[in-house]
Write a structure and sequence with these properties.
Elements (H helix, E strand, L loop, with lengths): L2 H66 L6 E3 L2 E5 H4 L1 H4 L8 E7 L4 H13 L4 E4 L5 H12 L3 E4 L6 H4 L3 H19 L5 E2 L14 H11 L2 E2 L4 E2 L10 H12 L4 E7 L5 H16 L3 E2 L12 E5 L2
Parallel strand pairs: 3-4, 3-9, 3-10, 4-5, 6-7, 8-9
Antiparallel strand pairs: 1-2, 2-11
Helix pairs in contact: 4-10, 5-7, 9-10
Length: 309
């Protein structure tokens, strides 16, 4: 082989090396770019989801606060009169010495893994409660709904979507959501559910439509709705310890003959699960009757709608 041929061969080898390095660089660059794109997209999705959860919690907290404030007072609205529960039943519901406290433990936003844990505790103490569930179509959630009913608890609707901007945007959307939730519960449990809890309560400040329209709709369907007069404070995660949740409830249930207690069994409510046994024991210490909501339960409502006299 001549020197010229050797130089040519060497040049070809160098060229192949350069091409190989270039290919390696391009492949590596593209791989890194794709991985970074996936990573950034994932991070953005997590941040958006986290932000949405925070917004939902903030909205719920604001609505819960509004719900415990004084509702519309003796306001004529067409053919209805809206009255706050504080004027309608609060006085006659105040407990006097010797009264038996009737306590209704209600759990919103499930079912979830925490629902199973709560059902186990309720079964241990032979206590029945009420679960206001949301629209979850997966088989595990359907099984939990059926378990609620099969174990003697009361199941109620807490909307299908649980998205305030959707269900409260119009009466049509609200009624569609109610029917969808009612059908889901019936399909999962065989029970035609006739009790409801408004997301954010009946006096929430988010609805674009007058809440009396939704209340009137439920009345026409024969569906009873329930707010609450005792809150555990567990609507916002990590704010209270388990002991504080118990104290929040006990400080108020002693005031009333009938107490409808707001609790949650959604994901992230492990503190509620942790508090439940102690809460039941404290209620038993004051000889309270712990009951599921039935047709005979006094309706705790922030607003009622009735015909004007």
């Amino acid at each position: 082989m001549t020197e010229e041929q050797r130089d040519l061969a060497q040049e070809k080898r160098e060229k192949r090396k350069r091409v190989k390095r270039m290919k390696t660089f391009i492949v590596t660059f593209l791989s890194v770019w794709i991985m970074l794109s996936i990573l950034l997209t994932t991070v953005l999705c997590i941040k958006v989801y986290s932000l949405q959860k925070q917004i939902d919690k903030l909205a719920e907290s604001v609505e819960n606060a509004a719900a415990t404030a004084t509702a519309v007072s003796d306001t004529d609205q067409g053919s209805v009169r809206v009255e706050p529960v504080t004027e309608a039943i609060a006085k006659e519901n105040l407990a006097e010495e010797g009264d038996v406290h009737k306590v209704y433990l209600t759990f919103d936003d499930g079912p979830s893994d925490n629902t199973d844990a709560i059902l186990e505790i309720l079964n241990e103490y032979n206590v029945k409660a009420t679960f206001f569930v949301v629209g979850k179509e997966d088989q595990e959630s359907r099984d939990r709904m059926k378990r609620i009913v099969d174990e003697g608890h009361t199941i109620g609707m807490h909307s299908y979507a649980h998205k305030y901007s959707e269900i409260y945007s119009s009466l049509e959307n609200f009624s569609t959501d109610v029917e969808k939730m009612q059908n889901l519960i019936e399909d999962a449990t065989g029970v035609r559910c006739m009790i409801y809890r408004f997301p954010g309560s009946s006096s929430n400040m988010i609805s674009n439509t007058d809440m009396t329209d939704y209340i009137r709709y439920l009345n026409e369907q024969g569906i009873a709705y329930y707010d609450w007069n005792v809150s555990s404070g567990d609507s916002t995660s990590q704010v209270y310890t388990a002991d504080e949740l118990v104290e929040n409830v006990m400080n108020d249930v002693v005031k009333y003959k009938t107490s409808v207690v707001l609790l949650h069994d959604s994901e992230g409510k492990e503190t509620t699960v942790e508090a439940l046994s102690s809460l039941i024991e404290r209620l038993q210490e004051i000889n309270a009757e712990i009951l599921p909501i039935t047709d005979d339960t006094v309706r705790i409502q922030y607003m009622t709608v009735s015909a004007n006299n």
